[in-house]
């Protein structure tokens, strides 16, 4: 039962006779009648009742006609879509994503992938300071990153702020588990802080908060990527770290835990950024926008 025979069968059913169908299909009547006979032999049942005026579908023929029309319609749609994809010109779009929000921005990246089949998407992962430089020299078209400190020369769409959490190694969990954490609770404890490669960002804000809240600030390591912070704690670093909640991954070995902060400390502000001179409304997924 091939597609060509189904097409011939449907045309005969719609025209009501082999002669009319043959004329429409631009083929001779004998070969068309032969194809119908082969189809009826394959099914093992007549598909038409022959009357003096026209050929009428049997019950089996009616069922086959409805199903065949659906199949042929879907095949034609598939063909059209494939031709469209094969012949269209894709727009190359370079998207930069900050290390700080790799997990968070994966959702938006997938939105672009699903909703913009006309884009040839290329993803670059880097530090926010590098992403700003790449926007300026047009290496990337869009940056998914922390809100820039300087509003010029950017066009910025701010997204919902992400909660700050404290991640505590198992060594300190008996002392801190089950409580809302005050910054002062971390006095003297070794700390890993996120730090961008160039310029000022969340590190400077967090550092200022720590020095105003702790008797003894013990910043041991500065890291640019949240994933590395968690890997270091998984490998045995005893201390604490601050991360955006979106980037937390539970410890496979129970080496660290999350402690919520007693008071909100909003420093993580993700945004979609382009140059203001290259503003393009097509670039913005609407559902993630801050109201």
From TrEMBL:
<dbReference type="InterPro" id="IPR000847">
    <property type="entry name" value="LysR_HTH_N"/>
</dbReference>
<dbReference type="InterPro" id="IPR036390">
    <property type="entry name" value="WH_DNA-bd_sf"/>
</dbReference>
<keyword id="KW-0805">Transcription regulation</keyword>
<dbReference type="Pfam" id="PF00126">
    <property type="entry name" value="HTH_1"/>
</dbReference>
<dbReference type="InterPro" id="IPR005119">
    <property type="entry name" value="LysR_subst-bd"/>
</dbReference>
<keyword id="KW-0238">DNA-binding</keyword>
<dbReference type="GO" id="GO:0000976">
    <property type="term" value="F:transcription cis-regulatory region binding"/>
</dbReference>
<dbReference type="GO" id="GO:0003700">
    <property type="term" value="F:DNA-binding transcription factor activity"/>
</dbReference>
<feature type="domain" description="HTH lysR-type">
    <location>
        <begin position="1"/>
        <end position="58"/>
    </location>
</feature>
<comment type="similarity">
    <text>Belongs to the LysR transcriptional regulatory family.</text>
</comment>
<dbReference type="Pfam" id="PF03466">
    <property type="entry name" value="LysR_substrate"/>
</dbReference>
<keyword id="KW-0804">Transcription</keyword>
<dbReference type="InterPro" id="IPR036388">
    <property type="entry name" value="WH-like_DNA-bd_sf"/>
</dbReference>
<protein>
    <submittedName>
        <fullName>LysR family transcriptional regulator</fullName>
    </submittedName>
</protein>
């Amino acid at each position: 039962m091939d597609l060509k025979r189904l097409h011939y069968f449907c045309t005969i059913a719609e025209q009501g006779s082999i002669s009319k169908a043959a004329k429409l299909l631009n083929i001779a009547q004998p070969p068309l009648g032969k194809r119908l006979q082969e189809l009826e032999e394959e099914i093992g049942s007549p598909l038409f009742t022959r009357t003096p005026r026209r050929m009428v579908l049997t019950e089996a023929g009616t069922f086959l006609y409805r199903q065949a029309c659906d199949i042929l319609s879907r095949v034609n749609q598939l063909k059209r879509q494939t031709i469209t994809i094969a012949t269209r010109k894709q727009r190359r779009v370079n998207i930069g994503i900050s290390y700080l929000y790799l997990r968070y921005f994966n959702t938006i990246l997938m939105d672009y992938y699903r909703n913009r089949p006309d884009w040839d998407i290329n993803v670059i992962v880097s530090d926010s300071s590098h992403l700003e430089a790449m926007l300026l020299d047009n290496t990337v078209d869009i940056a998914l990153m922390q809100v820039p400190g300087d509003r010029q020369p950017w066009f910025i769409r701010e997204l919902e702020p992400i909660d700050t959490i404290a991640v505590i190694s198992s060594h300190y969990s008996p002392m801190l588990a089950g409580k809302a954490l005050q910054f002062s609770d971390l006095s003297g404890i070794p700390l890993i802080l996120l730090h961008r490669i160039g310029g000022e960002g969340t590190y400077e804000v967090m550092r200022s908060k720590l020095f105003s809240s702790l008797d003894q600030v013990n910043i041991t390591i500065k890291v640019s990527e949240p994933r590395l912070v968690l890997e270091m704690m998984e490998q045995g670093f005893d201390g604490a770290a601050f991360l955006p909640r979106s980037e937390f991954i539970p410890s496979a070995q129970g080496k660290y835990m999350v402690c919520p902060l007693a008071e909100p400390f909003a420093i993580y502000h993700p945004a979609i950024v382009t140059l203001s001179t290259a503003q393009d409304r097509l670039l913005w997924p609407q559902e993630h926008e801050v109201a």
